[in-house]
Design a protein that fits this description.
single chain, about 500 residues, alpha/beta, Nucleotidyltransferase, domain 5, seven-stranded mixed beta sheet, 19 helices, globular
């Protein structure tokens, strides 16, 4: 057996961050979480921001914990995060203000303003992206619209993982997968969509070069190594820096007849394809072409995910009724099936102050029974999510012409056995779940390839299959789900975009 090689994956999610040690022994990968920390938005004068300096402190703490606990040299470090959000730097490389949170209200009305300046069809033709009001393009348009002095002063824009790669190395680049979440990148031409930026008066000279997933962008400087007590040189690698693309990189068995679901706060449902698809069908159904690994494209749709349950749980806790996840799922399983259903992607659920009340109000407004207790709300959410996955799967079959035979779920939601079974039932397809830690595994996998310890993604996926257990869910009763699906479709807007 060859010598074990150690990698450090920094995985920043919308609610928490982790430093995860990945070990490769030549045959198997394994992971060990060595540092976990919260990632909570901060509200300042009515606006939501990310606490990026606190996250930087925690990243350095994770590196220091590695240095103090392990004698084996660290081969490399890579950072992945959520998409769309960014930081602005001045000409000296200093941070200009606190980066905004994508749920901040500053992008309200920006889609409509953008379409006044450039037709929706033209924006899509250049970018191939799903239209969502919090995309980077509309965040920047809001700054143009308000004559924000930060934008006037900015010398460089870095997406969130690239900000941390810059602080780790001093090198300013943007990684391909995270660039494609911005709706400012032309995925067919593989360059920034300068005609769109020009039409919206967004400066393009602040955008650095785009690098491929699995690029060594630099090394930790001596001062940072001293600060964290690392005793040797360490490479810094851009994985697929958008966490979804890293997760997809780590899915065993992913093929032309598989649909993936990266399940967390958001659900990203899609297929891996060799070339982007940019046509009227994609536009009408509001799908996105996101950069993947090995020059592949992830044709996918961003759907609301476990956010519905997370926010409900938080609200009940605020009201003095805390429930664990296991308790909530047990209550949901016991609740009466197929009462009220919701459209998880409705604007009602983007950022309500009281999620359970928003769910009840949606059911009331659409002439359905209101879920009366926590179990009924949980069941309503999970059934609606599963039916939403079915809609997306059927769309993807139409868009690609492929019959999708297997659903592969990764991420935290893969541990939600009730949701996984509902998905198998609703879609009438077998569901294969795992690995749970797909994002961190994909991050480590790209680091191992970049540093020459793994030959390619195919080999890495086989190693992951050999290293981590997967669960299987077979579809059950069909008729009741078909009837519920008919009701669910009536709740969706006629135009998905």
């Amino acid at each position: 057996m060859s010598e074990t090689i150690n990698f450090l994956a920094i995985d920043l999610g919308g609610a928490s961050g982790r430093a995860i040690l990945g070990r490769w022994d030549g045959l198997h990968l394994n992971l060990e979480e060595i540092h976990r920390f919260p990632n909570e938005p901060v509200t300042i004068q009515g606006h939501q921001h990310w606490d990026v300096l606190r996250l930087w402190h925690e990243i350095k703490s994770g590196i220091a914990r590695y240095a103090h606990r392990f004698k084996r040299p660290l081969c490399s470090i890579g950072v992945d995060t959520w998409g769309v959000d960014f930081a602005l730097l001045d000409r000296r490389g200093n941070l200009l203000g606190n980066p905004y949170h994508y749920r901040d209200g500053r992008t309200d009305g920006m889609l409509e303003l953008a379409f006044q300046k450039m037709p929706r069809r033209q924006i899509f033709e250049h970018t191939g992206n799903q239209f969502m009001q919090f995309n980077t393009l509309y965040q920047l348009l809001s700054m143009v619209h308000k004559n924000d002095p930060q934008l006037e002063t900015a010398d460089t824009l870095l997406m969130m993982p690239d900000l941390y790669h810059y602080w780790l190395t001093g090198c300013k680049t943007i990684e391909f997968s995270i660039a494609t979440t911005s709706q400012m990148y032309d995925i067919r031409q593989r360059q920034w969509a300068t005609p769109v930026l020009a039409q919206l008066n967004i400066p393009d000279d602040i955008l650095p070069a785009v690098v491929s997933p699995g690029t060594i962008v630099g090394q930790l400087p001596l001062a940072l190594r001293d600060e964290t007590d690392l005793r040797q040189s360490v490479n810094v690698v851009t994985p697929a820096s958008h966490d979804t693309s890293s997760a997809i990189a780590a899915i065993p068995g992913l093929d032309d007849h598989s649909v993936f679901i990266s399940s967390g706060t958001w659900s990203l449902v899609g297929v891996e394809i060799p070339e982007p698809i940019v046509n009227d069908q994609i536009l009408a159904l509001n799908y996105t072409n996101e950069g993947g690994i090995d020059n592949a494209v992830n044709l996918q749709k961003i759907l609301t995910g476990l956010w519905l349950l997370q926010e409900s749980q938080r609200q009940w806790q605020r009201q003095g009724h805390p429930h664990s996840w296991d308790e909530l799922l047990a209550l949901g399983q016991e609740a009466e099936p197929f009462q009220g259903l919701i459209d998880p992607d409705a604007a009602d659920f983007l950022n309500p102050t009281d999620m359970p009340s928003a769910i009840r109000e949606f059911c009331r407004r659409t002439g359905q029974p209101e879920p009366g207790n926590a179990g009924a709300i949980i069941r309503c959410c999970l059934e609606s999510l599963a039916l939403n996955y079915r809609q997306a799967m059927e769309d993807l079959e139409t868009l690609t012409g492929n019959t999708l035979q297997t659903i592969r779920i990764v991420g935290g939601g893969s541990q939600n056995r009730l949701l996984c079974q509902f998905t198998a039932d609703a879609c009438q397809r077998p569901v294969v779940t795992g690995p749970v830690e797909a994002t961190a595994l994909g991050n480590v996998l790209l680091q191992a390839i970049a540093t020459g310890h793994l030959p390619d993604i195919a080999t890495g996926r086989k190693s992951i299959a050999a290293s981590f257990e997967q669960q299987y869910f077979e579809p059950g009763s069909k008729n009741v789900w078909d009837e519920a699906y008919g009701r669910f479709q009536k709740l969706k807007p006629e135009t998905q975009g």
